[in-house]
Amino acid sequence: MAHTKTETPFYGLMAEFDSAQALIDAADKVRRAGYTKADAYSPFPIHGLAEALGFHERHVAPVVLCAGITGALAGYSLEYWTQVIDWPMNIGGRPFHAWVSFIPPAFETTILFAAFSAVIGMLAMNGLPQPYHPVFNVPRFERASQDGFFLAIEATDPKFDADATKQFLSSLHPREVVQVDH
Amino acid sequence: MEASQFPKGDFRAPVPVIQEGHSYRSVTDKLTNLVLTPNTPVVWFAIMGVAFILLTGLAVSVSYLLLKGIGIWGNNIPVGWAFDIINFVWWIGIGHAGTLISAILLLFKQDWRTSINRFAEAMTLFAVLCAALFPLIHTGRPWLAAYWLFPYPNTMGLWPNFRSPLIWDVFAVSTYASVSAIFWFVGLIPDLATFRDKTASPILKKVFGVAALGWRGSAIHWARYEKAYLLLAGISTPLVLSVHTVVSFDFAVSVLPGWHATIFPPYFVAGAIYAGFAMVLTLAIPLRAIYKLHDFITIRHIENMAKITLVTGMIVVYGYACEAFFGWYSGTEYERFMLKNRIYYGPMAWSYWLLMLCNFIVPQILWSKRLRRNLVAVFTVAMFVNVGMWLERFVIIVTSLHRDFLPSSWDMYYPTIWDFMTLAGTIGLFTTLMFLFVRVLPLISIFEVRTMLPEAQVKAPSEGGSH
After folding, report:
1. Distance (Å, whole) CA B273 – CA A97
2. Angle in degrees, CA B369, B371, B377, rounded to 5
3. Taking the mean position of all CA atoms in its chain, how far away is CA B25?
4. A18, B31, B46, B347 - which has most CB atoms within 10 Å?
């Protein structure tokens, strides 16, 4: 992010671990040590890793619920407005407001809105698409999408201190600790 | 039952989902190297060659259709619907297995889905694309289909009729296509990031980098990702059931004997999954051989899919029995005539018995565990089911229409060369897209396979431990 660039000389410190278990244990210690701006990187989802870092946000589901309800109302309103208000047409003597017939399209718009909100909401909360991120400056970070397990503490963390944090990360038995440039 | 409980080499011993001895690196290398290699299997070119010829046939037949109109097809009153709708229902049904594997099996925590969900989802997408072609071209004037099909404010102030099942179909199919596409794409994001990080080519690095949206595998991202993925699965489950239900309403809501039956929605959904699993098997068995995926698509996958094929097949057969029973029990002259015409004295009774052979008799061999594990046997059954499910729609649509209430309006139906070319053409389109996909994108979800490895199993750190 632009403002952090000016405040700190570098993005943070990154430690690499050998296994998923080592990463989740390290993440737990990082949280217990009081760090709040830390993130772990792994080539597959590890259950409990985000919680070990102190992440407890539950925003995706409410977004999907709201979008689903919006979709249902939008679909039904479209049907009601076009069939009853804008141009009512007598087709086979069926009622203009044939609510039973209006259910399938309204159901589909519910699904459509909910599904798109799940994806767009998830990406937006994650700040994706993001063309650039400092962690990619670490040469070995390309392993994070293959077989590498990484943990980074940001320099903007209130508890961050270049030397002390480096020492702390080294105490977690990582493979190595490197500085992440902006 | 554990494998160790059986004598060595016993065919009844369970097979692992992923063959033992793999690591993150070996899985990643094997599955990325299928794409990031200059070597394309010769078989790939052979299949693409045939598929491309068929696809060219589609281009020719659709062009001719647009030039001349739908008179080039064999359908005419009383058989106003024929190959176009048969092919539509057939393709959309095939798509259903992909969503079943990716969504419903995920909710049921069936871990074996991991090796097959990606290409099954791609299959869904391409099958829906083939299906969507038919409602579009069967109008004869697809440039007008926009206001026939979609409610947008046009200059005439006209709206589609929402009291018609045909417009429900438009909503169901377009929602299904859109949701399948994003579901598939979301699943691809982490694997695209793997490709970005593994490719040596700077151009491909950019292409995959853009497609991966800057994914970096952050724990917080994964947490939201998994939540969204689970919700998508939960949303897709009622969606997939609704799609073929709505397709069946196209028939069931009408008053035509042979169409007007309350069994249609569940019977169509089961038929869709049946057809879809047959198509997944039709694709999985050759892909496994071409790309040597024996470690990932084990005999357990084949066997499980064969079991689902058998179960859904039996539900479909139950549907046939119900249809026959309803027709007889209704006591209605027209319903009973329809049945007799369909089953024995109609000129198209052959199609009913061929259907029974393909969908009822042949799949019974899958009761045998030995045959469920025999690739040739399973592939043969899958081919029979592919044909059988097409015939089912032929039987329902054509035999019900060609002899309706008034004998004076009866007529025969004969498809033309253009009907066959269009059908073969969509098979070409489907195969072309499928094999292009296999060449440029990971056909097995790499990150999900990683989660299946023993070393990926972690214990959550103990709360309030010694540190």
Report:
1. 34
2. 155
3. 32
4. B31
According to DSSP, the β-strands at A38-41 and A12-17 are unpaired
Residue contact B458–A46, C-beta within 8 A: yes
What does DSSP assign to residue A179? E
Q: Which residue in B127, B429, B444, B441 sits closest to B284, CA to CA?
A: B444
Is the ipTM higher than 0.90? The answer is yes
pLDDT at B417 over 60: yes
Q: Which of the residues B227, B452, B457 would you substitute to probe the A interface, choosing the one with the greatest number of A C-beta atoms within 10 Å?
A: B227
Same domain, A67 and A112: yes
In one-letter notation, the amino acid at residue B125 is L
Residue B39 binned pLDDT confidence (cut-offs 50, 70, 90): confident
- Does this model's pTM top 0.90? My answer is yes
Q: Which two tokens stand for residue B166?
A: 């045909």
Task: Tell me, yes or no, if B214 comes closer than 8 A to chain A by beta carbon.
Answer: yes
On whether both A75 and A112 belong to a single domain, the answer is yes
Q: Is B265 on the interface with A (CB under 8 A)?
A: no
Residue-wise pLDDT for B50-80, tens only, equals: 999 999 999 999 999 999 999 999 999 899 9
- Type of residue numbered B379: F
Domain of A11 in residue numbering reads as: 2-57+130-180
Count structural domains, chain A: 2
Token digits for B26? Answer: 């070996």
CB contact under 8 A, B225 and A104: no
Which pLDDT score, from 0 to 100, does residue B142 have?
A: 87
Are both A110 and A148 inside the same structural domain? no
CATH number of the B20-150+159-451 domain: 1.20.1630.10
Is A102 in the same domain as A139?
no
pLDDT at B362 over 90: yes
Contact residues, chain A, for B450 at CB < 8 Å? 43-44
pLDDT above 50: residue B464: no
Among A125, A142, A169, identify where a domain stops.
A125
Tell me the helices (H) and strands (E) count for chain B, helix number first: 18, 0
pLDDT band of residue B22 (cuts 50, 70, 90) is confident
Report the SS3 class of residue B16.
coil
DSSP per residue, B182-200: HHHHHHHHHHHHHHHHH--
Residues A111, A74 within the same domain:
yes
Q: What is the pLDDT of residues B373-409, one digit of tens each?
A: 999 999 999 999 999 999 999 999 999 999 988 999 9
d(CA A80, CA A97): 7
Asked if B231 reaches chain A (Cβ–Cβ under 8 Å), the answer is yes
CA distance B165 to A104: 9
Select from A58, A125, A144 the Cβ nearest to the Cβ of B217: A144
